[in-house]
Write a structure and sequence with these properties.
DUF6538; Integrase_recombinase_N; 14 helices; alpha+beta; DNA recombination; 388 residues; DNA-binding; 3-stranded antiparallel sheet; DNA polymerase, domain 1; 4-stranded antiparallel sheet; hpI Integrase, Chain A
């Protein structure tokens, strides 16, 4: 890591410039860190200087607003006196007022319990974008013009239609929840904002059968923990995070149906309630399970490499494994393609869709699907054997 004094608030790492700035003490209580650092996504010193200066200016402006917010309003006591002297109550009392940043805090405090860290990050990031563009206003002060300006800024950032949809969905939820908690009835300006939801959206592509077999063959040839993770996902359809966060005790081989127990852990929560399931081990996944349990190290984790902190580092796993697979797989294929392939492979043997959903942990529509315990392991195992 090298610092270049000619480019303010930045450092160079592996040829890429990064922005870095310490948070002033007087506004540090608004943050959960002491500094802000992120990639400027450029190797050009000229571009890095421009982006770093722009980011520094935006922070200075935002910190100014935070300081003003934390400072008592001159003459505020006179406003209280004036309110008491009115013959009728003010149209908007103090408990009916909340800024967007405060609404995020309420939202996370009440709805964020037991949710993964990504839930908090999505709320803070999405609403942070709004604050950057439109300011940290009272919820009822935002207008349709603000929402449209926010949309335009996301498009200028180069976000795809699906990413913009997710950001707007989070902002709408925070605003609706904040207004509901305060008992305020309002039209959410971030609802019904038009944009092309299909812009730059790339379909996820399943792996062709011959490519899938080639990848599995390479996994067995190299035979290390990275390739075990790929092979495990390939014949179970597990999400990468589900597989990376497994304990060794989640792998059961000494039973009539060898299987993996997918359950929530403090270091890796499940995406949905239906994600909790048992998946039979067949083909490459059965081979991996035996290789993992044959290891004599002391770690309780199936993949210790990605569980060295309080949270499973599935992003690191995704980056490393996608990089390794890239020369072998078609364009737009990735680790997530194994889940798409699993559905197609089960369709090819005419597996009923509700069994497919139980194997992959997908949500099945209909009230009746919530009754009972689902299909026995032996039934799921029979269908999985057909595809290997």
């Amino acid at each position: 890591m090298a610092y270049d004094k000619s480019i303010p608030f930045s450092f160079l790492k592996d040829g890429v410039f990064y922005f870095e700035r310490r948070i002033p003490r007087d506004v540090q209580h608004h943050y959960d860190t002491q500094k802000i650092a992120y990639s400027l996504r450029t190797r050009s010193a000229m571009v890095a200087a421009s982006r770093a200066r722009r980011a520094a200016d935006q922070l200075d402006e935002y910190w100014y607003h935070l300081r003003i917010k934390d400072t008592a309003l001159p003459g505020k006591h006179r406003l209280r006196i004036a309110a008491r002297n009115q013959s009728h109550p003010p149209s908007k009392t103090l408990n009916e007022t909340v800024n967007l940043s405060e609404a995020v805090g309420i939202y996370l405090r009440l709805k964020g319990k037991g949710r993964p860290a990504t839930f908090k990050r999505a709320a803070e990031r999405s609403c942070g974008y709004v604050i950057d563009i439109c300011g940290d206003k009272d919820l009822q002060a935002y207008t349709k013009a603000d929402a449209n300006r926010f949309r335009d800024s996301l498009i200028e950032r180069g976000l795809s239609g699906s990413s913009i949809t997710r950001v707007f969905g989070t902002v709408r939820s925070v605003v609706n929840f904040g207004a509901s908690e305060l008992g305020v009835t309002m039209a959410n300006p971030f609802g019904n904002v038009y944009f092309d939801r299909q812009a730059d959206v790339k379909d996820r592509v399943p792996l062709p059968d011959d490519v899938l077999r080639k990848v599995q063959s390479e996994c067995k040839r190299i035979d290390d923990d990275l390739r075990w993770l790929v092979a495990l996902v390939s014949d179970t359809g597990l999400r990468l995070a589900e597989a990376a966060g497994l304990l060794r005790e989640d792998i059961i081989l000494d039973d009539q149906v060898p299987r993996i127990v997918v359950r929530g852990h403090p270091w890796r929560r499940l995406k949905t309630p239906t994600s909790a399931r048992e998946v039979p081990l067949v083909g490459a996944s059965f081979w991996v399970a035996k290789r993992i349990l044959a290891q004599t190290d002391a770690s309780p984790f199936a993949f210790p490499r990605y569980n060295k902190s309080e949270e499973t580092n599935s992003n690191s796993a995704s980056a490393a494994l996608n990089k390794w697979m890239k020369p072998m797989v078609p364009e737009r294929c990735s680790m997530h393609s194994f889940r798409h392939s699993m559905r197609d492979r089960l369709r090819a043997v005419e597996c009923p869709s509700d069994i497919v959903d139980q194997i992959g942990g997908w949500q099945t529509e209909g009230v009746g699907q919530t009754y009972g315990r689902g299909y026995p392991l032996s039934v799921k195992a029979n269908w999985l054997r057909r595809i290997v």
